[in-house]
Amino acid sequence: MAWRGQLSRNLKELRILFCQKSDASACARSFVEKNYKDLKTLNPKFPILIRECSGIEPQMWARYDMGVERGIRLEGLTEPQILKTLEDLVKAGASLKA
């Protein structure tokens, strides 16, 4: 999973939004609890923003160069699927630079 260390090279910012209590956000909350420390250790100066808001749908937003953003809804996804979604967003950032 070498792509984990490339967040700061391919993205400008990562935002993860979820509800603190809803069942729809359970996998997103769990993903953050299990992966935030590792991602932040590998990318210490990279902004990973965690936003909790009551009643919001779980989402992941990636901001790239030139203000380009891509958002993905995480509702119904499992933790491995969320991890794959993040990997795809990171790889998309690499292709935008080419």
From TrEMBL:
Record-linked InterPro entries: NADH_Ub_cplx-1_asu_su-2, Ribosomal_mL43/mS25/NADH_DH, Thioredoxin-like_sf
UniProt key word Signal: no
Membrane disposition: Peripheral membrane protein
Predominant place of localization: mitochondrion
Entry keyword annotation includes Nucleotidyltransferase: no
Gene Ontology CC: mitochondrial inner membrane
Localization: Mitochondrion inner membrane
Disulfide bonds: C19-C53
SMART domains in the record: L51_S25_CI-B8
Residue ranges of every copy of the Ribosomal protein/NADH dehydrogenase domain listed in the record: 20-93
Alphabetic keyword roster: Disulfide bond, Electron transport, Membrane, Mitochondrion, Mitochondrion inner membrane, Respiratory chain, Transport
Family (UniProt): Belongs to the complex I NDUFA2 subunit family.
Function comment: Accessory subunit of the mitochondrial membrane respiratory chain NADH dehydrogenase (Complex I), that is believed not to be involved in catalysis. Complex I functions in the transfer of electrons from NADH to the respiratory chain. The immediate electron acceptor for the enzyme is believed to be ubiquinone.
Protein's name according to its UniProt entry: NADH dehydrogenase [ubiquinone] 1 alpha subcomplex subunit 2
Protein species of origin: Herrania umbratica
